[in-house]
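Notes from hallway chat w/ T.B., transcribed later so I don't forget. T.B. wanted the structure written out for a chain they're using in a teaching module, and asked if we could keep both sequence and structure tokens in one place. Agreed to drop them here.
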Amino acid sequence: MQAGFQELRTPEEVDRALGERSGSVLVFVNSVCGCAAGSARPGVIAAVKGITPLPRLTTVFAGQDREATERARGYFREFPPSSPSVILLKDGAPVYILERRQIEGRSPDHVAAELRRALHA
């Protein structure tokens, strides 16, 4: 995934990116399912266009980088695992999640609108 997202492939990369407890970080848990390709990825990219201030943008790929994904999920263990999903962390604490059940069957525009609300809250 591009569009300014930092791909985290190892647990160490996850700790460096998410271990800092200041500022906002958006974590996109990517997957190979159709709803990731059809709704989640384009929706997330659309949501962050023009957002200021822009949170740090990160992504892990469930099913591909399993160890990195498990480490990332440790930072938001309050939420059940969901792929794809989008999690917003503020000062190290999870404050928002958009889960697969909220993505599946929805348009990219719907996903973008939901995520923008969270980013502006």
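Follow-up for T.B.: Residues 34-48 form the longest helix (15 residues). Might be a good example for the class.
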